[in-house]
């Protein structure tokens, strides 16, 4: 977790009422989000909360928002980490996938804008490389420098 996330979770713990008792489930305790019976919240709890928020939003605004599920949040997280260039193996580890193909082909959603941004980034790198070579007085490597034997 990033330090921002850790601080956010600390704030949640400080602001909430302490649980009446600490449940232990499969050897785990200290759950961050619990229901009225001190059971940890599960995906269905979050899906209900998300649907309630989306419904209220859609009652107010003309541009409608689709339903959001915890699983959609996983896809969004994965895509948002991949876009700036997180190492795919690191992302695979964070997502808990045993197969890199699941991480890259199922959870990472990139579009035309992302491709355009990546091409622009590659062009910028090439310009920077050429400027560095000029500053060092080095010649660019070209295919003409090599000959087949």
Task: Please explain how this structure is put together.
By secondary structure, the protein is mostly helical. The chain is 57% helix and 0% strand. It contains 6 helices and no strands.
Strand content: under 5%
Based on Cα principal axes, name the global outline.
Answer: elongated
| Structural class by sheet pairing and helices | mainly alpha
Helix content: 55-70%
On the 0-100 scale, what is the average pLDDT? Answer: 86
Order of helices and strands: HHHHHH
Total beta strand runs:
0
Unreliable segments of 5+ consecutive residues? none
Ends distance = 53 Å
Radius of gyration: 24 Å
Could you give a short account of the major beta sheet? none
User: Helical segment tally?
Assistant: 6
Summarize the structure.
The chain is mostly helical and 149 residues long. The protein has helices at residues 3-15, 43-60, 70-82, 88-95, 100-107, 112-136.
